[in-house]
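TL;DR need structure tokens for one chain.
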Amino acid sequence: MLDAATRAAIAASHDELTAIRRDIHAHPEMGLEEVRTAALVAEKLRGWGIEVTEGVGKTGVVGVVRGKLPGQRSIGLRADMDALAIPEQTGLGYASANPGVMHACGHDGHTTMLLGAAKYLAANRNFSGTVNLIFQPAEEGRGGAKAMLADGLFDRFPCDAIYGMHNMPGIPVGKFALRKGPLLAAGGRWVVTFRGTGGHGGATPHLATDVTVAQAQYIMAIQTIVARSVAPLEAAVVSVGSVHGGSNQSSNVMPSEIEITGTMRCFNQKTQDIISTRMEQLANAVAAGTGCNVEVALSWGFHALVNHPEQTDVAIGAASALVGAENVDGNTPPFTGGEDFAFMMEERPGSFIFVGNGVNADGPTHAVHTPHYDFNDAIIPLGVEYWVSVVQQELALSA
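>> reply
TL;DR here they are.
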């Protein structure tokens, strides 16, 4: 449990950290383009006397804090830095100055909370071993975790265990949630393109190969994948995100090509394989039945994030020490969002936790990935305390 002096020291940095968070929020950058954000992180770390390596996985930053007590164990604490291609509509004084890009997922807050932990740990090295502070680029689908791994992340910065944290709107401030086993889903994107002859919809529809019928049949057919191909007790999602074909300026023209895109989610490799196979089988069957050609492109951008039991016990202990066991949901339901920290956790054992971003008492709680979302600055000290508590659990931090 963190003592009063530790909590007071962390609380004393709240205003400074809030200013950092809002500065990052006002200057969002897309994945693998986090040049300003990475420079800010590196500058702050160096100013606190921390060893810094920049350019890990292109724009990633790693800070290394070595404890002054004997010990060889090392852990990694990871935060993400990238923003999303969403026009901000919050009207905040520190709203995005980069049109069409905003921190709509709270990565500005995640980066700030890890910076707060870095500041405290650099000034209080009463622990055994090493803490690697991993500031990851491009979590939002641009492959930042893979880029850092390909750049030798864990060879250059060895970690016996790794930990991640994400804010969650709808969970009250002062509460945490996680679970052992699958917590977040594998996520994939699919694109199916039907091609035919096209034709005149009024005069000679009988001479055309109608791709609109093919797409309609296909959209209906893929609804059977979760209902009839995936086991009843396995969670899975197959959703259509867009349909593109023809022109609303030429309503009498039957298009020669139509493209359908969507997403797919599940929690294990077996279900991934079932979904992929059935998506392609159904596309080929519909194409054969309608006389069309079809092209299918499937890609799984994220693997399922699976929390390891030992590290999840550490995470539960670290959070419970701060807010009490009654405020830590250690068996929260799996969530079909995706998280590329999963790739790091396939390389090293770890755990991922949600920290409550709050519930609006007087209106809707704005979810992540929406234009009205904003990270709750009130939880910054709690996030910093969580990271310090993890170090206390893993490396026996003393006041």
